[in-house]
Amino acid sequence: MPHKDLLKGAAAVLALMVATSASADLVLSTQPRGPHSEVDKPFEELAAYLSQATGTTVTYKYIDTWLAYAIEMQKGRFDIVFDGPAFVSWRMLHRDHEVLVKVAGAPGRHVVAVRKENAKFKTIHDLAGHRICGRPTPNLSSLVMLNEFPNPSRQPLIVPAESYDDAFEKMMENRCAGAVVSESKFKKLNEKDVARAVIVTEPLPKQAISAGPNVTPEQKRKIHEALAAPDAEKYLGTFLKKYADGKPFEAADPAAYRDHHILLKNEWGFGEKASR
């Protein structure tokens, strides 16, 4: 009968849609990290490894600006992402992402430093309205520093730096009152005891990989198992050396990432009213 044929046709179309969705390519991306020549090889290595693990083509998408990264993320165009805890948390809350693995190791801290002889700056709040050298937001270090100033009108002015080394050097050249760097980098840069910390921030979890709703539960399981496998470094040597300090991946605790979206509250499109 005609209605039976119609039902059969609808069922066939539905099955095709499900099969197509299940086999669709997945998009891997990360925050702006430099030119193609530096970024492509490690992330293409990661994409190839994940493609083999899932049986689905994982394609790496290069992003060159923070604005493009924000727009693409807010539109839900990334299926698998490697970045820091603030973005991981935001995607968990607003884009139904699940954090799968993180770079192994203890949570990290950041330091806001001043020149040692600059006695007028005793606490972080003494730097309100002053110039601080650091990576432009939404780099994690600067987000953490600005979070210490709930009143935006009191926030320091960030003088853009290319790296932690550059921020520290500019501070020592008196081009800014302070510098925001990672705690580990501060210890290396301050071996001659020329600076002091006005604050050491609360620890934050390591960079992690999250996966969105287009990644099936089975694919997520395979990604987790592949990245946390003891022999993963044989296939991800370039990636781990460049972006994980040579450390492996390990299981991530979602609770450790859940609340850090608050660091993005003043960044365009990432506030509490972020659209779905």
Automatic annotation (TrEMBL):
The keyword Signal applies. It comes from the Bacteria. Residues 1-24 form the signal peptide. Keywords: Signal. This is Solute-binding protein family 3/N-terminal domain-containing protein.
